[in-house]
Amino acid sequence: MGERGINNHSEVNEFILVGFQVRPELQILLFFIFLLTYSMVLLGNIGMIVLILTASRLNTPMYFFLGNLSFIDLSYSSAVTPKAIANFLSDSKTISFAGCVAQLFFFALFIVAEGLLLAAMAYDRFIAICSPLLYSAQMSRRLCIQLVAGCYFCGCITSILQVSITFTMSFCASHVIDLFYCDTHPIQKISCSNVFINKVVSYSLSVIIILPTIIVIIVSYIYILSTILKIHSIEGQMKAFSTCGSHLMVVSLLYGTVSFMYLTPASSPELVKVASLCYTIVTPMLNPLIYSLRNKDVKEALKSMLWGEKSFL
Predict the structure, then answer these.
(1) Helix, strand, coil: what percent of the chain each, to 5?
(2) Which candidate, 195, 175, 172, places its Cα nearest to that of 185?
(3) Are residues 87 and 180 in contact, defined by beta-carbon separation less than 8 angstroms?
(4) Which backbone phi and psi does 96 adopt, to 5 degrees?
(5) Is residue 264 part of a domain?
(6) What is the C-alpha separation between 235 and 223, in angstroms, rounded?
(7) Are 200 and 41 in contact (CB under 8 A)?
(8) What is the pTM of this model?
(9) How far apart are the first and last CA of the chain?
(10) Element spanning 13, H or E
């Protein structure tokens, strides 16, 4: 059985990504929608990274985390979206075996890193609001770097485990993945191996990553809410709420769709594709808008940068 599995595995040279099964004229429309959305992902996240690196007023732990969030959004969207865009204009809609492995590896790495980073950002807001006098001492540059490095390290370990168990399966007949990118669940569906252990490991990894980070976020915001309600000034309360509002919106967008994908029973393929679309391209597009439109410091830094360029010209 092991020898047969190895032979079958070695014969797989490519997979077919089904994507969205619509009429040919709608494929063209989807191509332009994806292209426009991905362009906004690039513009928004690269712009946010450049702004944070160049604006001295944004040299704080909160914006250090936000810069990394933009980098992660840009990275996992770029692991998936360009191939999806190209396949809208392709008849074959294929992806090589190596390309599929790389796509799953980088997507899993950055999506896990983002979940952990959002928990770190919740902890940062907890310290900033509940212990403002100790904020500079507790959220040191060294600690921030360690937290972010830990997010990437955990993402990398999880990704290696996920890719290893996924691509040691056998693929006997169908190589058609019913999604617009390579992901664990649709790949398991086309395997002729016994995928029980794979499913248990995949589900366990999802639970280990998602539930603790959600608990950290919920506990942090319980303390934050309690502290905010003790503030006598309405202006002070509104300022504190605005600081946390953007983060909560981003958390809701990501965790809502990811939990639906990986912690709930199998849904219809079309629902899965819509949920996947939300966190692979829509969320990375919205995150810079959420933080820039709701954040006074970001808006002021952007104005300063644009006025500086205008006066130079």
Answers:
(1) 80, 5, 15
(2) 195
(3) yes
(4) -65, 160
(5) yes
(6) 19
(7) no
(8) 0.89
(9) 71
(10) none
In terms of DSSP bridges, do strands 176-177 and 14-17 run parallel, antiparallel, or are they unpaired?
A: parallel
CA distance linking residue 231 with residue 241, whole number of Å:
11
Strands, DSSP E only, in 119-214?
A: 176-177
177: part of which helix (H) or strand (E)? strand 176-177
Closest CA to 97 of 15, 26, 184, 187: 15
Tell me the backbone φ, ψ of residue 14, rounded to 5 degrees.
-160, 160
Task: Please report whether residue 7 resides in a domain.
Answer: no
The Cα 177–Cα 184 span in angstroms is 10
**Is residue 77 domain-resident?**
yes
The CATH code of the domain that includes 197 is: 1.20.1070.10
**Domain boundaries, position 243:** 15-304
Q: Is the dihedral of CA 257, 261, 265, 267 positive or negative?
A: positive
The structure tokens listed for 91 are 């008849």
Stated length of the chain: 313
The amino acid that residue 75 corresponds to is S
Distance (Å, whole) CA 262 – CA 266:
9
Instruction: From first to last of the 313 residues of the chain, give the pLDDT tens digit.
Output: 444 444 444 467 899 998 888 888 888 999 999 999 999 999 999 999 999 999 888 899 999 999 999 999 999 999 999 999 999 988 888 999 999 999 999 999 999 999 999 999 999 999 999 998 999 999 999 999 999 999 999 999 999 999 999 998 888 777 899 999 999 988 988 888 888 898 899 889 988 998 899 999 999 999 999 988 888 787 777 777 777 888 888 888 888 887 777 766 666 777 888 888 888 999 999 989 888 776 778 888 888 877 765 443 3
How far, rounded to the nearest angstrom, does the alpha carbon of residue 112 sit from its chain's CA centroid?
7
**Residue 225: CB partners within 8 Å, gap ≥ 6?**
none
Residue 72, helix vs strand vs coil: helix
Task: Specify if 2 maps to a domain.
Answer: no
Give bridge partners of residue 15 from the DSSP assignment.
95
Tell me how many domains the chain contains.
1
Residue type for position 256: G
